[in-house]
Amino acid sequence: MQRIETETDSGSKSKSESESESKNEIELVSPSKTKDKYIYFLNQKLGSGGYGQVFRGIRTKDSAEITVKVVKFDPAIQEHKLLFINEVVVLKKIYSDGQCSMHNVLCILDGFISLPQNSGYIITQYIANAIDLFTYIPQFKHHSVETNLDICRQLFIALKYIHGLGLVHMDIKPENILVVPLTGANSKIKITLIDFGYSCESHKCTAKGTIDYLAPEVGNDIKLTNKVDIFSLGATLFRCFHPEHLLPYNGRKLHKWYRYKNMYQSIDIPSRPIPKNNFIPLIDENYPFIRNMISTDSELRPSATDLLLFLDSTQ
Ligand SMILES: Nc1ncnc2c1ncn2[C@@H]1O[C@H](COP(=O)(O)OP(=O)(O)OP(=O)(O)O)[C@@H](O)[C@H]1O
Ligand SMILES: [Mg+2]
């Protein structure tokens, strides 16, 4: 088993570090200043992402199930360290009022850096039996409109909550939404928004995200607002509810169109790059808010609060 005893990023040297070999078993000791050092036992790799690996594990003190995102810092890539620090800062802000779980947002438990290991660790709650929404998408074929609207509601609650904290997620997409299908009489679904690596305070957001779900104003020298998340969520929902799980536009073309529109105002260009007939009637009829969520004009997009009010008024 590998044992890693971590140190904070204060620049002081490691207290202790001992290693013995095993495949996926790592014992991780957080650098808490109190006597109660948390020890985490990592036992299963859940996935590898853009800048880290995610493990499932146990907090030995109380056997709580946890998830650890391990980010290896390549000294040549400063961005990885910055993304890590950013994610910890954002998650701690979300956790500070203890309301994250009931607002469908992942809760952080701990976060620290090991200088000797050149790594950062983010400990969060473990969402048992979860699959990401991207993997789950084929299941939408079997859903009722009511179930889908329940998924919308949970995601609107998550956005209202983080936007209320003055944050923008910046990378809403099916891969960053966890789904737990609950079985039982009225089988519901529990949704959790994850991955705050690109998140930012509203006035400090820069161009980041995933092109297919990215609002067209991102990357165009325009002050970004939380309406960026509304667009990405609208695109995500459109894709889930479309019978063939397609998006109503091509991400790169949409961004090109937007830049072109701003540069050459006088040239006759279509007012909407998303043709009406791409909006299949089924989506417009059952989820009429999606059309406005992916408007190319950010001011026309509803806020998360507006969206929740709309759902309340129609149910
Ligand atoms: N708390 C959790 N509970 C259960 N599974 C999780 C949890 N957090 C992450 N995962 C799993 O790990 C995957 C990657 O997590 P996350 O998106 O936070 O990492 P990432 O390194 O940013 O990945 P990417 O670059 O692919 O976005 C998720 O899609 C999910 O399958
Ligand atoms: Mg992710």
Which CATH architecture of the largest domain?
Answer: Orthogonal Bundle
Which sequence of strands runs across the widest sheet?
2-1-3-4-5-6-8-7
Low-confidence stretches: 7-23
Helix and strand pattern? EEEEEEHEEEHHEEEEHHHHH
- Ligand names: adenosine-5'-triphosphate, magnesium ion
Radius of gyration: 21 Å
Average pLDDT confidence is 84
| Residue share in helix | 25-40%
Fourth-tier CATH superfamily name of the largest domain: Transferase(Phosphotransferase) domain 1
CATH class of the largest domain: Mainly Alpha
* CA-based shape: globular
The name CATH uses for the topology of the largest domain is Transferase(Phosphotransferase), domain 1
Query: Structural class, judged by helices and strands?
Result: alpha+beta
**What's the end-to-end separation, in Å?**
54 Å
How many discrete structural domains?
2
How many helix segments?
A: 8
Explain what this protein looks like in three dimensions.
- It contains eight helices and 13 strands.
- The protein has helices at residues 78-95, 133-136, 145-164, 227-241, 251-263, 281-286, 289-293, 304-314; strands at 2-5, 18-19, 26-29, 39-48, 53-59, 64-72, 108-114, 119-125, 131-132, 167-168, 177-181, 189-193, 200-201.
- An eight-stranded mixed β-sheet has the order 2-1-3-4-5-6-8-7, with helices on one face. The protein has a three-stranded antiparallel β-sheet with strand order 9-11-12.
- A hairpin with a 4-residue loop joins β4 (39-48) and β5 (53-59).
- α3 packs antiparallel against α4.
- The protein starts with a strand and ends with a helix.
- The site of adenosine-5'-triphosphate (ATP) has 22 residues, from β4, β6 and β8.
